[in-house]
């Protein structure tokens, strides 16, 4: 105890140095080390910037711009500087230090990128808006060298200005790669001077099924963020054409803008699949001269023809002058190979190259493209399907198929550099719920099973596919704040990451997103389950998120700002559907939430429970179906007794679980329950379904209520999954906290 007493004053000093009201403790991603100093730096006298190296002049210009945006006078002035920028070879290449004293500010980096990262931290300190900066010293460096984000501009086009605005947000959070998905079946978005039809025709389309889904949603939900942007529509001979593209000058401007912010832009031209936009312009690129769809995917390029290979090389050659990046992404995923099986040109190529069928033909194409890129000083990058193509270790792989972890380990074992981009965690285009932020934040890129190959792991990347994301407001709601969680995972050491502290830091950053004109997902409205019951009447007490106005209806219609605004608790006495929607300060609508209400009598406890023990009886079935009701029709694999609702150790592969027993209710009341599962789950109490979370889906929470008398009630939870899912279930308390079932509550 003497040792602890001796250390206590030191601990108190450290706590004071990192007190929660310091702007330094608000930084995202959280820095490696922050030491508090004495006093503050007064911003009222302005900032005079001196870059110590000519290489840092772009960074100095960028920093001056950031300061002026925060109403701080700033200019480059080497003779009377109070802010210096320096390169320090002793620091990690992407690392930095930021030192603030009452007299001056020093930014040092192991590279220009490191200095820009220091500027990002300084920028966040300025957001406190106090007119001064606290004296401190930050010593920081990233966990991963590749901290990326991909934007799909092919499915829906985003303007140059929107891309640059998003790039600025990425720079705030120390991302250093912007991957642009420039081509796909739905559009070709980059000017290629040798093939002008690619943008004259391929960049524009008659509204398709993706567009119809967006327009239907805009109408059904009264939500303009799902409308096709008028700026991306033109009318030709009375017909609507939707799309857009970047000129080569646009690309140069985007690349330069990103480079000043420490971000490298990676182009993706999807080859040889996902190519309908190109085939529609130049039909000779397809085996039969037609664009269309095969059994699984769209018509691919005819890579048996030399003219098609020349087309690919010519397109890639024009990219080399536009993108300084070492990497060129060629896609390589989801290729429909069946046309090659009957194409004379492809069969001729297969024979000439001594290949074994259409699968090896794609591998041949990928290897040839790898060689072409290498000859021009570029590195091939592709989705993880390219690991099957016999590439050299010089190529890099982007792992996305989270249900196939073997492709990740295979790529690492083969010596490839790998960027992790698992769809389960880092595809940010999916619909959101209250758990998606914690799910993204909690993902660990480097588990123990991968430590042996960690040198091959370049980093991580989040992706935004835009099939149903037509506007920046729709994108913002999906991206933020999850993209900030990705930033912290990519930058900060595992021991520095703490979700509760991340949530504490978020409000400042959400205000800055609003200020920059970016939408973000509001927190869930608390106070109701998906399915609610009441005895006599229900008093509805809702907890809307801060900075939002909440509107509701009781007749199932979609609320808008003309609907009833929630200002105080209200009563429900009849069965109804409560429909909720929040609006942010800019008047942008959040997602719709529906909650059913119905009257219910108390369920009496079971009379024949007998002598009970803690835990549940669990049966595991070899089940590969798509609903909970049919689980027990599959072969029984094993029986278990578990203390709580869990997937028992040793249960793998096709999983169907039935967890039976009783739940011990301590007092009469209405109880709220939830399940959180991937895939489906249902919870029944006294034979009545209380939570219906059934069906094939990714991680999803559903909740419901039951009116229960004191005593034990029969309990049955069903769950299935075919791909290594998760299962959690429990009670929701009066504060909205999710509390997993304990062994004391569950009996058998």
Which labels suit this protein?
Immunoglobulin-like; 28% strand; seven-stranded mixed sheet; 18 helices; single chain; 26% helix; Chitobiase, domain 2; TIM Barrel; alpha/beta; disordered N terminus; 748 residues; 38 strands; eight-stranded parallel beta barrel
Q: How big a fraction of the residues is strand?
A: 25-35%
Could you say what the CATH architecture of the largest domain is? Alpha-Beta Barrel
Total number of helices: 18
> Mind telling me the CATH superfamily name of the largest domain?
Glycosidases
Number of β-strand runs: 38
Secondary-structure content class: alpha/beta
What does the model show?
With about 750 residues, this protein is α/β, with parallel strands linked by helices. The protein folds into four domains: about 1-140, Chitobiase, domain 2 (2-Layer Sandwich); about 145-195 and about 245-510, Alpha-Beta Barrel (TIM Barrel); about 530-600, Immunoglobulin-like (Sandwich); about 615-745, Jelly Rolls (Sandwich), CATH 2.60.120. The protein has 18 helices and 38 strands. The strands form eight sheets. It has an eight-stranded parallel beta barrel with strand order 8-9-15-16-17-18-19-20, surrounded by six helices. Strands 1-7-5-6-4-2-3 form a seven-stranded mixed β-sheet. Strands 28, 29, 30, 32, 33, 35 and 38 form a seven-stranded antiparallel β-sheet that branches. Strand 8 (about 145-150), helix 4 and strand 9 (about 175-180) form a beta-alpha-beta unit. Helix 2 (about 55-70) packs parallel to helix 3 (about 110-125), helix 4 (about 160-170) runs parallel beside helix 7 and helix 15 runs parallel beside helix 17. It is globular. The two termini are about 45 Å apart. The model is unreliable at about 1-20 (pLDDT under 50). It catalyses: Hydrolysis of terminal non-reducing N-acetyl-D-hexosamine residues in N-acetyl-beta-D-hexosaminides. Belongs to the glycosyl hydrolase 20 family. Keywords: Glycosidase, Hydrolase.
């Amino acid at each position: 105890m003497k040792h602890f007493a001796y250390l206590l004053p030191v601990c108190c000093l450290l706590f004071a140095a990192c007190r929660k009201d310091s702007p330094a403790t608000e930084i995202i991603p959280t820095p490696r080390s922050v030491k508090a100093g004495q006093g503050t730096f007064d911003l009222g006298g302005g900032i005079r910037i001196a870059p110590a190296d000519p290489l840092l002049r772009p960074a100095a210009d960028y920093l001056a711009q950031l300061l002026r945006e925060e109403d701080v006078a700033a200019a480059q002035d080497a003779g009377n500087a109070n802010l210096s920028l320096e390169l320090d070879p002793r620091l990690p290449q992407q690392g930095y230090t930021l030192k603030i004293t009452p007299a001056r500010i020093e930014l040092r980096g192991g590279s220009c990128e490191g200095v820009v990262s220091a500027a990002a931290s300084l920028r966040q300190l300025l957001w406190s808006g106090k007119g001064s900066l606290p004296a401190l010293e930050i010593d920081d460096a990233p966990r991963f060298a590749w901290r990326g984000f991909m934007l799909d501009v092919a499915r829906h086009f985003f303007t140059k200005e929107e891309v640059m605005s998003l790039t600025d947000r990425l720079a705030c959070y120390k991302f250093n790669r912007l991957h642009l998905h420039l081509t796909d079946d739905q559009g070709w978005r980059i000017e290629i001077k040798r093939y002008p039809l690619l943008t004259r025709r391929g960049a524009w389309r008659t509204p398709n099924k993706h567009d119809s889904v967006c327009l239907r949603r805009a109408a059904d939900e009264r939500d303009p963020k799902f409308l096709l942007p008028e700026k991306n529509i033109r009318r030709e001979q009375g017909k609507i054409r939707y799309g857009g593209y970047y000129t080569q000058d646009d690309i140069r401007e985007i690349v330069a803008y990103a480079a000043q912010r420490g971000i490298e832009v990676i182009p993706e031209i999807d080859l040889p699949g996902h190519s309908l936009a190109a085939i529609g312009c130049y039909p000779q690129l397809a085996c039969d001269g037609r664009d269309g769809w095969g059994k699984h995917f769209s018509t691919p390029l005819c890579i048996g023809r030399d003219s098609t290979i020349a087309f690919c090389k010519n397109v890639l050659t024009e990219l080399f002058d536009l993108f300084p990046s070492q990497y060129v992404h060629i896609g390589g995923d989801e290729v429909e190979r069946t046309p090659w099986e009957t194409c004379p040109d492809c069969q001729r190529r297969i024979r000439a190259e001594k290949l074994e069928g259409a699968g090896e033909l794609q591998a041949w194409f990928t290897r040839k493209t790898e060689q072409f890129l290498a000859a021009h000083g570029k590195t091939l990058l592709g989705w993880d399907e390219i690991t099957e193509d016999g590439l050299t270790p010089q190529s890099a792989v982007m792992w996305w198929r989270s249900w196939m972890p073997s492709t990740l380990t295979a790529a690492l074992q083969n010596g490839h550099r790998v960027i992790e981009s698992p769809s389960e965690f880092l595809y940010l285009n999916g619909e959101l719920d209250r758990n998606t932020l914690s799910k993204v934040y909690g993902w660990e890129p480097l588990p123990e099973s991968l430590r042996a190959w960690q040198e091959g792991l370049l980093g991580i990347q989040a992706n935004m596919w835009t099939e149903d994301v037509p506007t920046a407001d729709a994108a913002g709601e999906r991206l933020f704040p999850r993209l900030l969680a990705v930033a912290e995972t990519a930058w900060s050491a595992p021991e520095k990451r703490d979700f509760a502290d991340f949530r504490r830091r978020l409000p400042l950053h959400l205000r800055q997103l609003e200020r920059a004109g970016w939408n973000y997902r509001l927190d869930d409205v608390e106070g109701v389950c998906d399915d609610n019951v009441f005895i006599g009447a229900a008093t509805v007490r809702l907890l809307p998120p801060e900075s939002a106005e909440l509107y509701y209806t009781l007749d199932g219609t979609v609320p808008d700002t003309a609907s009833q605004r929630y200002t105080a608790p209200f009563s429900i006495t009849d069965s109804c559907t409560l429909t909720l929607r929040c609006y942010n300060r800019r008047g942008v609508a959040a997602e719709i939430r529906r909650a059913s209400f119905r009257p219910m009598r108390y369920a009496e406890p079971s009379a024949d429970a007998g002598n009970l023990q803690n835990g549940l009886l669990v049966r595991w079935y070899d089940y590969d179906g798509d609903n909970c009701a049919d689980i027990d029709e599959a072969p029984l694999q094993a029986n278990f007794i578990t203390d709580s609702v869990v997937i028992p150790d040793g249960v793998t592969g096709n999983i169907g679980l039935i967890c039976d027993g009783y739940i011990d209710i301590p007092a009469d009341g209405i109880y709220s329950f939830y399940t959180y599962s991937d895939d489906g789950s249902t919870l029944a109490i006294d034979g009545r379904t209380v939570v219906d979370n059934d069906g094939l889906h990714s991680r999803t929470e559903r909740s419901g209520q039951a009116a229960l008398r004191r005593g034990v009630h029969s309990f049955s939870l069903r769950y299935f999954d075919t791909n290594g899912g998760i299962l959690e279930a429990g009670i929701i308390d009066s504060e909205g906290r999710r509390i997993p079932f304990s062994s004391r509550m569950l009996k058998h």
